[in-house]
């Protein structure tokens, strides 16, 4: 889900480069084959989950941003540790056949994408392999086709990991932009963070954003500059405009602007709203969110409408959703339909089943499931999300759903006491995976089937191991490329109870 991206490391040299010392001022670790500042030739043997090249020098691991497996590169070592170090590529000696020229002009500086230099077909293969490696290494699960020995691991039938579902046109897919605002040489700038820092790279066009988002962000920045609205300075805590968040509803064409401000009062508010609406006629909602905290969190607790409605509407498949400023809504509509279709397929619904959707959010998966199930119960700890979920159910005339606020591991046992026995449990947790208490609760409820939608293969594998130890078997996993040209991959896993 956009905004879940782990922060990649900087491609730029640190100030300690060439000093011969460890970052932090200590002496280089004794016995290592490299030291900070050293230049060497490095063989790249793999990629990390963040898309960095994994290099080897005399058996020692170096992470090299921008390098690809199979390449020989000349590097400068930036830092070293006991287990691994980091280096920057200074020269590409032998390129991979999968290397392509990144089309984005600010790719080398911007931290938004990590894999534009890797051919898209190769990206899809790598993302599947990332899932396979995590299942085997963390989940201790045999994967079909990986090795005959693994497939016989403890008599466990091999898990089928399907090829990654990609996009025919893997550009301009994001329907939401979340742009930090800052100042440079006295002027307001907005773009994305530089690799490994909070320096903002000025950006007017992003190749993974929908054109409508670029147009709207440019209009907001131009209007703010014209009216002299100050940019927030995260070091001093002064300045007003912190972030510009824009959404574009692909089906309805509606657009939303959220101005995240370091304080309540915006100078020339009506003029600002007027300039934005004049430049972007499709804007139907302009909101202000107030965030005065000294944290990197984008949104504060208070949001108010400056112009138009508090929501915009979009559709996924035949289901319509009301999207508020802080709603979680998948950012790649085309791939979301494929992801949710896989989840519905793995649920094995015939129209009679009782389904529990944990981490239900605004009801996106719940409403898809409700079209095929007898009854769906959704639970989510965020009250505003449940309000949106109930509104979305009414909006679509779907009446076989019920939503509750609370922690799933608390609400689900209460449902069980009320006589609700799930045939299927669907989970779609954040990157940290399922709460341990929720895993325990699912094992207590013992539904015949569990569907796990994941945005993080490592925590997916960890949780699958716990479910397997509790009497379940992972049957198959479908990776879906929700975020082309980044290191992220989403998956849907089909899990069955071993004893019925």
UniProtKB/TrEMBL annotation:
Region spans: Disordered: 1-32
Keywords for the protein's UniProt record, in alphabetical order: Methyltransferase, S-adenosyl-L-methionine, Transferase
Active site, renumbered: 455, 455 (nucleophile)
Chain sites annotated for binding S-adenosyl-L-methionine: 330, 359, 380, 428
Sample GO molecular function, one term: methyltransferase activity
Domain TRAM: 33-91
One matching Pfam family: TRAM
Family annotation (InterPro entries): MeTrfase_TrmA_AS (IPR030390), MeTrfase_TrmA_CS (IPR030391), NA-bd_OB-fold (IPR012340), SAM-dependent_MTases_sf (IPR029063), TRAM_dom (IPR002792), U5_MeTrfase_fam (IPR010280)
Transmembrane segments: none
Biased composition (Basic residues): 1-10
UniProt family annotation: Belongs to the class I-like SAM-binding methyltransferase superfamily. RNA M5U methyltransferase family.
Descriptive protein name: RNA methyltransferase
Species of the source: Cohnella kolymensis
Taxonomic lineage: Bacteria, Bacillati, Bacillota, Bacilli, Bacillales
